[in-house]
Amino acid sequence: MPIKQFQALYKQRRKDVSCLLGVAPPIASMQKANMTTVQHHGFSFMIVTQKDQTFFFVFIKLPKSLRWPNKHRYTMEDAERQAAKYADLPVTDDILFGELWKRRSRGHLCCLEEGVYKLWHFGRAVLVGDSAHKMTPALALGGSCTIESVAVLVNELKKECNRQAHSKLSGATITEVFNRYQNKRVQRTNMIYKVTYNAVRVHSRDGFLRNLRGLFIALFVGRRAAADRFSAVVRGASKIDFVPIPARSKGTIGFDDENN
What we know:
Blueprint: H1 3-10, E1 14-24, E2 34-39, E3 43-49, E4 54-66, H2 76-86, H3 97-103, E5 106-116, E6 121-122, E7 125-126, E8 133-134, H4 142-163, H5 171-203, H6 208-220, H7 223-234, H8 256-259
Antiparallel strand pairs: 1-4, 1-5, 2-3, 3-4, 5-8, 6-7
Helix pairs in contact: 4-5, 5-6
């Protein structure tokens, strides 16, 4: 890819949020397999608990937006200073953030890039995951989005390889395959990106309208309604078409391609 085209591509991403993140051992009083979000003005907490680990994130609004080539790298001293600001704030009814930070096995401070590129491929090279569509981990959807993109890409490659089983794929055919992959993914990826973009800003009360939304969601929207809205995002996920779906227990809401 020509360097000017690459630079223009990279400028499509923005950095509005920094993140203090880390991993700590499980804490007895914290419910396992749970995700908790705590809203504040200018920042928010997200705590994800698993059987053997506790993941924590502090999303912090930056004073101004950054774009490439502007970047900011933080030291461990920077991370410690940020952690001290939030040490006495609760992340659950009986746990303060400072307790998680002290117990951490690792933790650091970084800037979060956000953006969906307009071009995902060039020649025989193709982008998937964060390299094509990067979003904050505010709803833990970035990894799922990566898996979906891989599934769609291998589906398209498999179809074309089946059509041309006795010949190599030409450059023009590969470009066509990559175009189909991007076209099938771009609308859903942009939708998920917008959901995560708004979520991290609502949780940090970024602006008057988002402040109202945060208060409304916290006070008037029940867990069932929130779960239904989240399910509406997840249910449209793509799968690998040529691999059998393993037997599993089914929830109350199925995936769209299983309901059709």
